[in-house]
Amino acid sequence: MVPTRLTDTQRDAALAELPEWRLRGDGLAIERKLAFADFAEAFGFMARLAIHAEKVDHHPEWRNVYNRVEITLTTHDAGGLSLRDVAMARAIDAML
Ligand SMILES: C[C@H](O)[C@H](O)[C@H]1CNC2=NC(N)=NC(=O)C2=N1
């Protein structure tokens, strides 16, 4: 099933519940920057998130430099933000 893109009102309500996440400039994605103690901690987190992403069939865009992980969530199939991104952001927050 193709996910539905959130309306601006739905997006703003979701973001209000996700204070660690920022809306990207174009409004089509949310972003969070994380810092871990070292590379092993960062990569361990990425491994756990990768397993979750496979389970729910929703995948982050991310960049890792040593202990830092920058994550972007968007739904390609919806051309912007969907409830899948909100659920993924919540799951990430709960993993930390
Ligand atoms: C076929 C497969 O279900 C789709 O390509 C899924 C996989 N993971 C995905 N991840 C993200 N972030 N957006 C998608 O639209 C998406 N679609």
Automatic annotation (TrEMBL):
<protein>
    <recommendedName>
        <fullName>Putative pterin-4-alpha-carbinolamine dehydratase</fullName>
        <ecNumber>4.2.1.96</ecNumber>
    </recommendedName>
</protein>
<dbReference type="InterPro" id="IPR001533">
    <property type="entry name" value="Pterin_deHydtase"/>
</dbReference>
<dbReference type="InterPro" id="IPR036428">
    <property type="entry name" value="PCD_sf"/>
</dbReference>
<comment type="similarity">
    <text>Belongs to the pterin-4-alpha-carbinolamine dehydratase family.</text>
</comment>
<dbReference type="Pfam" id="PF01329">
    <property type="entry name" value="Pterin_4a"/>
</dbReference>
<dbReference type="GO" id="GO:0008124">
    <property type="term" value="F:4-alpha-hydroxytetrahydrobiopterin dehydratase activity"/>
</dbReference>
<keyword id="KW-0456">Lyase</keyword>
